[in-house]
């Protein structure tokens, strides 16, 4: 199977008042076509910045310095112009953010925002045609009163409803890669579980590859085919989900797993950072990328 | 505090602001020593050198009765700064008290005080001051009074908004539970939380007070001749445009430089204090 | 839409209360004027008897509260009394001078919004880079001088040094325009006189721009500050992640949510121009309310002072009311709220 996304030896540094600080120390990962890959770590480990680098967003910050190979469907992203990279966003690569309600614009209706998203693929799409397409897409995320939803503002809908809208938008243009950054963490647990299940079904049906970013191993276990564990800007363990869960090789992964039962609420429990074993070399399970 | 000053001095723009303000304040304070013609602050006539453009003797030219403009501008800074300091020493405390009590007490006190504030805020600032100066004799003292009268409501509004949200905070409720007096709660508990906003506004307002005061004297409703004032200097010179351009341009630029300096500092301060919250 | 109506009626009610308060305040200020207004009006040559008669006619011998009662009764009939300065009804005087001032202020308001908002938008889009630094310094300079200084500088540069614009007046005298609205830009169009319209536009531009400079700076600063905050919101990041162009994000996704909090202050700044118009009118000899206002104040002309301030305050309140409605229209949270809360 070919790689949809390949990240090779990615480094990220920020220029600050006190000189440069390195956030990613050369991480490598890959997502194959139609595969669901999880990037797991606590907040500040570098997982969210990785997603933003793949989209080419972080590179636009003057203070960020990014190095390393980025390949999307075999194409070297670093050789693309800004405009070409921008053309991929919202069409071939799309993204779902943590809090659905705040990731929708508060002063435009869902219908307006949906039409804008659809026009990324089809710039000449009329509003009527866009509403019709959006209606069908909303049906697929089990929203049946789509006319009302399209005419509503985000603050008039529940968080779960907005989450479905966001998922429908993310898949609207048939992307080959979906990046999901802690989707639904802001929602309550049952709604989160429902929407994850929904997302699971949809990507399976459409064959969309997913890079799933999470701190929640419980969710990852259900959702992902393969797992990369990231700790302080380094990948510390990688492999197929069953292998990692059956035999976690790295001390940090074991600590994360020990914490799982307490995670349901969303926050990650305190891990003892001083544990030196967390800095052990990477553990690679069979089936993972060599 | 020390950190704030270091950040201020590191940014080139706020450093420029500090330099400008220091220059204005120093020339106001040391006008007697810096001014080439200290006597020209008053009613002096020198018909040998009247209405001349900039020369080596008078770097900014002379006015219609031959007084050195540069010297007069230095003394005019003094008037502007005194006015600004006095207004900002009186208006913010009044407004703060009104806002604190309206915001904390609520109910009828809130209604009466805030409607009163609204009344003052509903007259365009300069118009209120103009109307008051029409009633009062145009002196420095009365100009301060008029500007203060139009200034306090802005602080009342600012503090009211903060006090109203703080009213529901845990520490206020806790103080109420242990039976602290209204005076204690407003002054000791709520007031400290309003201070950063008040101080930032005061820095930014220094420039605006100078603008309003010079506007009053520009209309002939403020400080009267022969006391040097930037606004009345521009007004006097405006009749002799474009030939005697220095009569308006230099006092005008003097206002711009002083206010710009205060605004640069106020802006930087707002960013720093705002970011700290 | 009923939420907006409720909001409108509530604001209207508050505005009325405030207007009554303003009338009391101004009336109170005007009544503490030192000196006898009747004596001032009649001049030093009038007899004691004439003065006494005028005092009686003006109700000056009654208590202040009674005087205020007479004043309100007259006001409700649209009568602001007679100006002691022009010997004409104050309403007539104001009707003559107000349109010129309003035209100037409205035109300046258009410049303020039309230039200030895009500048702020640009600044925010390029935040931290050189266009941003440039716009920030320029807009700070704009708010750092009173409008009469800008008026003088602009006049020197663009009327004398480069004689592009006229130095005074509203229109070239040779044009004879029938007065309909008092707004020359409107009246010339009503008369179908394109040349006169262009001439009026040419006359109004420089004074209006001088009046607008600090408003432009203020609007740009405010828009920038609110937009920079908006740029940190997740929905802007989402728009970026979906590949919308930086220009589109600036002009639509980040701009509209930022506009709502900016508008209230922009409304206040616009209203402040009613006061600053006094300064600009003086420099450009603009035949508006300013000269009249300053003249009646210097002559302690009570009725005229009260009338002028009252009219300006009413205009100010109307502007704020319109801004509130505009905000309600732009902000779906208000438009669609059940209770019509602000």
What order do the helices and strands come in, and which of them pair?
The complex is a heterotrimer of chains A (290), B (277) and C (342).
Chain A: E1 3-16, E2 19-32, E3 36-40, H1 47-54, E4 64-72, E5 75-76, H2 82-88, E6 93-96, H3 110-121, H4 127-140, H5 146-150, H6 159-172, E7 177-181, H7 189-206, E8 209-214, H8 217-223, E9 226-231, E10 234-240, H9 241-246, H10 251-259, E11 283-284
Parallel strand pairs in A: 3-8, 3-9, 6-7, 7-8, 10-11
Antiparallel strand pairs in A: 1-2, 1-4, 4-5, 9-10
Helix pairs in contact in A: 3-4, 4-6, 6-7
Chain B: H1 2-10, H2 12-29, H3 31-34, H4 69-105, H5 107-121, H6 125-135, H7 140-166, H8 170-177, H9 182-218, H10 230-238, H11 246-276
Helix pairs in contact in B: 2-4, 2-11, 4-5, 4-7, 4-9, 4-11, 5-7, 6-7, 7-9, 8-9, 9-10, 9-11, 10-11
Chain C: H1 2-31, H2 37-42, H3 48-57, H4 64-76, H5 90-125, H6 130-143, H7 147-161, H8 184-190, H9 194-231, H10 234-241, H11 246-253, H12 255-284, H13 289-298, H14 302-330, H15 332-335
Helix pairs in contact in C: 1-14, 5-6, 5-9, 5-11, 5-12, 6-9, 7-9, 7-12, 8-9, 9-12, 12-13, 12-14, 13-14
Give your account of this protein's structure:
The complex is a heterotrimer of chains A (290), B (277) and C (342). Chain A is of the alpha/beta class. Chain A has ten helices and eleven strands. Chain A is 34% helix and 26% strand. A seven-stranded mixed beta sheet of chain A has the order 6-7-8-3-9-10-11, sandwiched between helices. In chain A, strands 2-1-4-5 form a four-stranded antiparallel beta sheet, covered by helices on one side. In chain A, helix 4 (127-140) crosses helix 6 and helix 6 packs parallel to helix 7 (189-206). The two termini of chain A are 15 Å apart. Chain B is 74% helix and 0% strand. In chain B, helix 6 (125-135) packs across helix 7, helix 8 (170-177) crosses helix 9 and helix 9 runs parallel beside helix 10 (230-238). The two termini of chain B are 14 Å apart. Chain C has two domains: 1-85 and 299-342, no CATH class; 99-292, MetI-like (MetI-like fold), CATH 1.10.3720. Chains in contact: A-C, B-C.
SSE pattern of chain A: EEEHEEHEHHHHEHEHEEHHE
CATH architecture of the largest domain in chain C: Orthogonal Bundle
What is CATH's topology name of the largest domain in chain C?
A: MetI-like fold
Number of helices of chain A: 10
Strand tally of chain C: 0
Would you tell me the overall average pLDDT of chain A? 86
- Helix content class of chain C: over 70%
Look at the helices and sheets of chain C and give the structural class.
Answer: mainly alpha
């Amino acid at each position: 199977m070919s790689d949809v996304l390949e990240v090779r030896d990615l480094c990220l540094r920020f220029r600050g008042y006190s000189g440069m600080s390195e956030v990613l120390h050369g991480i490598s990962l890959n997502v194959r076509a139609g595969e669901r890959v999880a990037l797991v770590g606590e907040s500040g480990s570098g997982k969210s910045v990785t997603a933003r680098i793949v989209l080419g967003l972080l590179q636009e910050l003057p203070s960020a310095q990014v190095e390393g190979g980025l390949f999307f469907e075999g194409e070297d992203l670093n050789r693309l112009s800004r405009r070409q990279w921008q053309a991929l966003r919202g069409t071939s690569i799309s993204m779902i953010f943590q809090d659905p309600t705040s990731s929708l614009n508060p002063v435009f209706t869902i219908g307006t925002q949906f039409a804008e998203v659809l026009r990324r693929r089809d710039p000449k799409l009329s509003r009527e045609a866009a509403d019709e397409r959006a209606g069908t897409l909303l049906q697929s995320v089990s929203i049946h009163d789509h006319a009302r939803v399209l005419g509503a503002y985000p603050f008039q809908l529940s968080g779960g409803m907005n989450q479905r809208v966001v998922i429908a938008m993310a898949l609207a243009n048939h992307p080959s890669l979906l990046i999901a950054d802690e989707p639904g963490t802001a929602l309550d647990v049952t709604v989160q579980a429902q929407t994850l299940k929904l997302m699971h079904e949809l990507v399976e049906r459409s064959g969309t590859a997913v890079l799933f970013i999470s701190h929640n191993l419980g969710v990852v276990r259900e959702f992902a085919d393969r797992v990369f564990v990231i700790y302080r800007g380094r990948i510390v363990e990688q492999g197929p989900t069953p292998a990692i869960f059956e035999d976690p090789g790295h001390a940090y992964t074991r600590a994360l797993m020990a914490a799982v039962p307490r995670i349901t609420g969303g926050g990650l429990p305190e891990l003892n950072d001083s544990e030196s074993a967390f800095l052990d070399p990477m553990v690679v399970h069979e089936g993972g990328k060599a | 505090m020390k950190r704030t000053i270091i950040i201020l001095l590191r940014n080139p723009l706020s450093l420029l602001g500090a330099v400008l303000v220091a220059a204005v304040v120093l020339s106001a304070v040391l006008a007697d020593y810096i001014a080439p013609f200290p006597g020209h602050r008053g009613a002096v006539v020198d018909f040998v050198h009247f209405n001349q453009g900039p020369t080596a003797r008078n770097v900014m030219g002379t006015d219609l009765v031959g007084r050195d403009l540069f010297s007069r501008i230095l003394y005019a800074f003094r008037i502007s700064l005194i006015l600004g300091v006095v207004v900002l020493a009186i208006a913010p405390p009044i407004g703060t008290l009104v806002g604190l009590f309206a915001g904390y007490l609520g109910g009828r006190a809130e209604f009466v005080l805030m409607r009163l504030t609204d009344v003052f805020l509903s007259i365009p600032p300069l118009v209120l001051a103009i109307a008051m100066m029409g009633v009062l004799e145009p002196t420095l003292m009365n100009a301060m009074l008029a500007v203060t009268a139009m200034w306090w409501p802005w602080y009342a509004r600012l503090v009211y908004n903060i006090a109203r949200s703080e009213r529901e905070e845990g520490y206020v409720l806790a103080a109420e539970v242990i039976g602290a007096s209204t005076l204690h709660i407003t002054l000791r508990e709520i007031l400290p939380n309003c201070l950063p906003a008040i101080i930032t506004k005061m820095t930014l307002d220094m420039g605006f007070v100078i603008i309003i005061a010079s506007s009053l004297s520009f209309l002939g409703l403020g400080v009267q001749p022969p006391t040097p004032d930037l606004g009345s200097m521009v007004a006097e010179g405006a009749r002799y445009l474009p030939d005697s351009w220095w009569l308006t341009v230099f006092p005008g630029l003097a206002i711009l430089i002083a206010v710009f300096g205060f605004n640069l500092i106020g802006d930087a301060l707002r960013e720093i204090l705002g970011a700290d919250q | 839409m009923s939420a907006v109506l409720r909001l409108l009626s509530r604001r209207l009610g508050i505005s009325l209360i405030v207007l009554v308060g303003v009338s009391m305040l101004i009336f109170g200020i005007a009544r503490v004027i030192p000196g006898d207004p009747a004596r001032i009006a009649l001049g030093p040559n009038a007899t004691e008897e004439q003065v006494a008669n005028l005092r009686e006619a003006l109700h000056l011998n009654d208590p202040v509260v009674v005087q205020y009662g007479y004043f309100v009764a007259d006001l409700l009939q649209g009568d602001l009394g007679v100006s002691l300065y022009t010997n004409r009804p104050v309403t007539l005087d104001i009707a003559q001078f107000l349109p010129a001032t309003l035209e100037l202020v409205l035109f300046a308001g258009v410049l303020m919004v039309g230039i200030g908002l895009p500048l702020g938008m640009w600044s925010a889009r390029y935040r931290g880079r050189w266009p941003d630094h440039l716009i920030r310094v320029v807009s700070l300079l704009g708010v750092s001088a009173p409008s009469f200084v800008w008026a003088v500088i602009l006049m020197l540069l663009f009327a004398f040094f480069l004689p592009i614009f006229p130095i005074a007046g509203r229109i070239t005298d040779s044009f004879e325009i029938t007065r309909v609205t008092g707004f020359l830009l409107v009246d010339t169009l009503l008369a179908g006189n394109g040349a006169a319209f262009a001439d009026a536009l040419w006359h109004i531009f420089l004074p209006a721009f001088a009046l607008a400079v600090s408003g432009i700076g203020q609007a740009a600063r405010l828009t920038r500050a609110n937009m920079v905050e908006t740029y940190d919101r997740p929905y802007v990041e989402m728009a970026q992640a979906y590949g919308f162009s930086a220009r589109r994000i600036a002009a639509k996704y980040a701009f509209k949510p930022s506009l709502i909090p900016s508008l209230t202050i922009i409304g206040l700044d616009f209203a402040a121009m009613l006061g600053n118009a006094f300064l600009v009118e003086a420099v450009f000899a603009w035949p508006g309310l300013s000269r009249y206002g300053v003249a009646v104040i210097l002559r302690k002309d009570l009725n005229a002072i009260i009338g002028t301030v009252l009219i300006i305050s009413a205009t100010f309140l109307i502007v704020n009311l319109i801004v509130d409605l505009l905000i309600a229209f732009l902000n779906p949270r208000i438009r669609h709220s059940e209770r019509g809360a602000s």
